[in-house]
Design goal:
The protein has 2 domains: about 25-70, no CATH class; about 70-240, MetI-like fold (Orthogonal Bundle). Helix content is about 70%, strand content about 0%. It contains 11 helices and no strands. The radius of gyration is 27 Å and the shape is extended. The N and C termini lie far apart (about 85 Å).
């Protein structure tokens, strides 16, 4: 008796070949997903699990109760105010700077220099930004010492570590970030629209309304992006 083995249907073979092609095409992205799993997903899981454990590893909810203590709520409130103030400052000042750059000639040297500078300063954050301000305008910074020794100007001690100082530090990179995000949206609005509005007798503010209606997602995105980038930190020297 001769036994015969039937071949797989063509549809099944096609699905197998398609799955193999998809696996090969996705293989170059494996390092990215491994990196995300190790440095993002795994730490997140560990934080969630350990937040419900005490020092001995037993289950507890005491860690979550501390979030509603008076000191924690104070830090959250001050950090939210800091986020709102610095993000709003970035939107307003950066938006005005974008308007000036958008109305300038695309080949103007000032526009090229400012856009290049904003591209660099928008990435200047974190430890580098903190060190730069501490080393320059901190209590014993270079600029602080220069003003004190050469001009007799004494800066207030600890001002950099208070609310206004934090707003200045965060606005230092949020304003350039606003320019990078918002300027392409303004460049996408045709200058003929402004010329047509002025020709028809509209007021100069009318084209601004058009820009706001057409480009509002970009400043809104910048505001929430900058708001989310500011960690919950104490804003008083006594809490540092």
């Amino acid at each position: 008796m001769i036994s015969t083995v039937s071949a797989a249907p063509p549809a099944v073979q096609a699905r197998g070949r398609s799955w193999t092609r998809n696996l090969k095409s996705a293989l170059p992205t494996a390092p990215f997903f491994i990196y995300v799993a190790i440095f993002l997903i795994l730490p997140t899981i560990l934080v969630i699990v350990q937040s419900f454990q005490d020092q001995k590893g037993a289950f507890t909810t005491e860690n979550l109760k501390r979030l509603f203590s008076s000191s924690a709520l104070t830090v959250f409130k001050e950090s939210m105010l800091l986020s709102l103030a610095s993000a709003f400052l970035g939107v307003v000042v950066g938006g005005l700077l974008c308007y000036a750059l958008a109305t300038a000639a695309p080949t103007a040297s000032v526009r090229k220099v400012l856009v290049a500078a904003c591209s660099v300063l928008a990435q200047f954050g974190g430890v580098m930004l903190a060190f730069a301000f501490i080393a320059s305008v901190g209590n014993e910074g270079f600029v602080t010492g220069l003003l004190r020794d050469s001009f007799g100007i004494e800066l207030s001690q600890g001002w950099l570590y208070q609310f206004n100082g934090f707003v200045l530090v965060y606005a230092y990179f949020q304003i350039p970030l606003m320019v990078i995000i918002f300027l392409p949206a303004l460049d996408g609005i045709k200058p003929q629209w402004r010329e047509a509005a002025e020709t028809l007798g509209d007021q100069p503010g009318c084209i601004g309304e058009v820009w706001l209606v057409r480009s509002w997602p970009q400043p809104l995105f910048h505001h929430f992006c900058c708001y989310s980038r500011i960690p919950f930190l104490p804003t008083q020297p006594s809490q540092l």
